[in-house]
Design goal:
CATH topology of the largest domain: Four Helix Bundle (Hemerythrin (Met), subunit A)
Distance between the termini: 75 Å
Number of helices: 10
Number of strands: 42
Number of domains: 4
Helix content: 25-40%
Largest sheet: 7 strands, mixed
Shape: globular
Structural class: alpha+beta
Oligomer: single chain
């Protein structure tokens, strides 16, 4: 009996010892060879059935060097303690192939199927969230390989058989052939195209297009079971979708994250390698998809492919589409993007989404992510090894310059680079001040008719005291063009300039003298010189040596900003208030005075004096800034602004010499005063509208809509007050003229006019309208002034958002 009882005890002990040894072998010090085929750790628990939070990703879908770099990682940054990775001829095969030749220090190889180093595993139980490996195929191998991975998070939690995308290994030309034909077929051309399309889907996600991939986090490691990307393409939207082990893949536009009342586009496998696309509708509150009742319009299938369970398609979708009486506006309305894939189809419908289903975390306008400019090497080492100056201000850091110049000094060699978004020219000038005149200019000019190079480099001269440029008498020997290009509307040129040159009798010594940089671009050129810089023109704010590396900031635009702010405050704000008071409120606040004057007159005079002072100040500031008369598109704005300023200037002098209220010419003065004031107001408002289009102002186009809102509101106030003025006259109350050009009393003091003892009819309503008018005008003026002072407002807003998100 004792012997009988000891045996179970010993058996239990031996079983625990065996399990401990097995756990140590498979968990702490790596996987043992007996798990090579199953890849299942001997932990005594089952593998997880959920989607693994880990992925195994090859660096490329094809290699000709027989070597493949792999990354085992967790998109969600989840740590793991153990892993086992093998290369196999296919995901369903047990044929292990190849060897691991490069591993991290905490990993080792084991021999599976008697192939040395054919699997990689951990060598200790330290925690990690990624492993980088390098695998090499046999010398004579030409075919497909899929990498399988088992990842252990802890003893009770692990995932088995995580697959990579297949990699096509192409035997290099100098590799020896064994003379034996392999039985592993190469990747088909269709599957190769799908793999390439898959990488295109991942490229630019979050920068140039919106993307959704499943499982979560798979976009960053480029190994999704299913994925969709969407980007604006002209007036349409391009959707690219891919799914693995699937018969269909579909996206939907939805107002929430749930299935129901959604606009769906499906790509389905239609026999052989064919793919078709359909529009369908997710029925609200029914978990049901319907296709056959809806017209297949508003989208088109550009391309579609199917091979070995992989399905890919590209859809071009209209920005506006109506389905089931609901209009889907992809340009202006935000949507959740739903994505689903399944392994089966139904007649006139798709099957259950058993492969993948999910949605974006938030709704957004699909137009939010427009194409962005990729990294441009011209920005490399800016203000570190070379000087950089660009337009608009502060564009260097985010590589968004419309135009840029760089200066690299290497010993006695001065190398310049110019790049601008123009089809005409971009030029940089060396100047002793921030104004045009007496400057040595280097121009990169686009010549589409040139048989050799489309870009020509010229030296030219800005004539002193003139807004003109010439290259006729300038020797073209001081510069040497190194390289140039014209692509996608961008001019680029790289050139060197001699350290010392003489232009128009003036010596330019780059080594010993300091200069301001003038940067300009225009859309038109002539044979002998460039034309007006209608795209942009800017000046650096520092006089410095070109060899003194540091930031070339733009010259201060304080006077321009103050000019705009003063003019808006004067004409949008104070003039609008003063004119309304004088026109409609002479019969309001009767019996109340300020300093012996009627309330309306005291406030009218106060507002108009502010208008006069701000206008004169703004007029002086802009002439101090510009220095002379402008050219190009600025002239219309300038002419209207000068007319408005002159009319404004003479108004108070006309008022100072006005005839006595009882005088014979007093009505004539009243009419002239009204005409001059309103003409100045109209001209000033039109000039402000035109200022929005000026490059130097850097104002957004949508500012026009705020100005339109101001005009509409201002006109509406006039209509309302005029209407109630007419109604009050008909009721026999004290007469309020719509155009009160005759004085209603002989003195502005209400104490001397006994007929005016009470307010006119509807004075309470007029006061309410005036209060509303005051609030709206002040609000609009404040917004407009902020837009002008903080211009360019979009850049400032983006910068502020970035600071908030830090």
């Amino acid at each position: 009996m004792k012997t009988f009882r000891r045996r179970p005890f010993h058996g239990i002990v031996l079983w625990f010892i065996f399990q401990l040894i097995k756990d140590v072998n498979s968990y702490s010090n790596g996987a043992p060879t007996f798990v090579c085929q199953s890849m299942i750790p001997g932990h005594g628990v089952s593998a997880q059935n959920s989607v693994a939070p880990y992925s195994i990703t090859p660096a490329q879908p094809q290699t000709e060097g027989s070597k493949v770099k792999l990354m085992l990682t967790s998109p969600s940054k989840e740590e793991f303690t153990g892993f086992l990775v093998q290369g196999r001829t296919s995901a369903t095969s047990n044929n292990t192939i190849g060897s691991f030749i490069s591993l991290p220090e905490d990993a080792k190889t084991i021999d599976c199927n008697n192939i040395k180093g054919s699997a990689a595993t951990q060598s200790n139980n330290s925690k990690r969230n990624s492993v980088e490996l390098e695998w090499e195929a046999p010398p004579d191998y030409d075919g497909s390989v899929t990498f399988l991975a088992t990842v252990v998070k802890n003893k009770q939690t692990f995932w088995v058989g995580i697959e990579s995308a297949p990699v096509h290994v192409k035997r290099s030309a100098d590799a020896p052939s064994s003379g034996i034909s392999t039985t592993f077929p190469p990747v088909s051309p269709v599957l190769s195209e799908i793999f390439s399309a898959e990488q295109d889907i991942y490229s630019g996600c979050g920068k140039t297009k919106n993307c959704l991939g499943l499982p979560e986090g798979c976009i960053s490691v480029r190994n999704c079971t299913t994925a969709v990307s969407v980007r604006p393409l002209g007036l349409k939207y391009q959707f690219d979708m891919i799914a693995k082990q699937s018969e269909y893949v579909a996206f939907a536009l939805s107002d929430d994250q749930l299935m129901g009342a959604d606009n769906v586009v499906e790509c389905i496998h239609d026999g052989a390698n064919g793919v078709k696309a359909y529009r369908s509708w997710n029925v609200a509150n029914a978990k049901k998809n319907m296709r056959e009742y809806y017209e297949q319009t508003g989208f088109s299938l550009v391309t579609g492919s199917y091979a070995d369970g992989y399905i890919y398609c590209r859809i071009l979708h209209d920005s506006l589409n109506t389905l089931n009486d609901i209009t889907f506006d992809l340009e202006n309305n935000p949507y959740y993007l739903l994505l689903a894939a399944g392994s089966s189809l139904k007649p006139n419908s798709v099957g259950y989404h058993d492969i993948a289903r999910g949605s974006t975390a938030d709704s957004r306008k699909l137009s939010d992510l427009r194409a962005v400019v990729p990294h441009d090497p011209i920005y490399d080492d800016c203000n570190v090894l070379k000087n950089c100056f660009g337009y608009p201000d502060d564009c260097i850091n985010d590589e968004s310059c419309t135009g840029i110049v760089t200066v690299l000094v290497e010993g006695g060699r001065y190398q310049f680079e110019l790049k601008g978004k123009t089809s005409g020219y971009i030029a940089v000038g060396l100047s002793n001040d921030t104004m045009m005149g007496g400057d040595s200019v280097m121009e990169c000019v686009y010549d589409p008719n040139s048989p050799s190079s489309n870009i020509k480099l010229f030296m030219s001269w800005n004539r002193p005291g003139e807004k003109s440029n010439t290259r006729n008498k300038v020797k073209q020997t001081g510069v040497n063009l190194l390289s140039s290009s014209y692509e996608d509307g961008n001019i680029y040129c790289k050139f060197t300039r001699d350290v010392k040159t003489t232009v128009e009798g003036k010596i330019f010594d780059l080594a010993n003298d300091k200069y301001y940089l003038l940067l300009a671009a225009g859309s038109a050129v002539k044979s002998e010189h460039v034309r007006y810089h209608d795209i942009f023109a800017t000046s650096s704010g520092q006089l410095k040596a070109l060899s003194d590396v540091g930031s070339f900031g733009a010259a201060s635009k304080l006077y321009i900003r103050l000019h705009g702010a003063f003019m808006i405050a004067a004409w949008i704000g104070f003039a609008s208030l003063g004119i309304v008071l004088a026109r409609y409120f002479k019969q309001t606040w009767v019996g109340v005075s300020h300093c012996g004057k009627d309330v309306w007159f005291a406030w009218h005079r106060f507002f108009m004096i502010l208008t006069w002072l701000l206008t004169i100040a703004g007029f002086v500031l802009i002439f101090v800034e510009i220095g002379e008369w402008v050219q190009g598109s600025s002239q219309t704005h300038a002419i209207l602004g000068v007319v408005a300023s002159v009319l404004c200037f003479i108004q108070p002098f006309m008022a100072a010499f006005r005839p006595h209220p009882g005088g014979r010419r007093r009505p004539l003065f009243n009419w002239l005063h009204w005409l001059v004031g309103n003409t100045a107001h109209i001209f000033a408002i039109v000039a402000i509208f035109l200022a929005v289009q000026l490059k130097k102002a850097e104002l957004p186009d949508w500012m026009d809509w705020i100005l339109v809102a101001f005009v509409a509101f201002y006109v509406l106030v006039h209509l309302i007050l005029s209407l109630f003025g007419c109604i009050s006259e008909r009721q026999g109350a004290k007469r309020i003229n719509a155009f009160p050009m005759n004085d209603m009393h002989t003195s502005r003091s209400p104490l001397n006019n006994m007929d005016r003892k009470r307010d006119g009819v509807y004075s309470g309503f007029r006061k309410f309208i005036l209060f509303l008018h005051f609030v709206v005008i002040i609000a609009l003026s404040t917004v407009l002034i902020l837009i002008v002072v903080l211009a360019p407002i979009e850049r400032q807003w983006t910068s502020l958002q970035n600071k908030w998100n830090m």
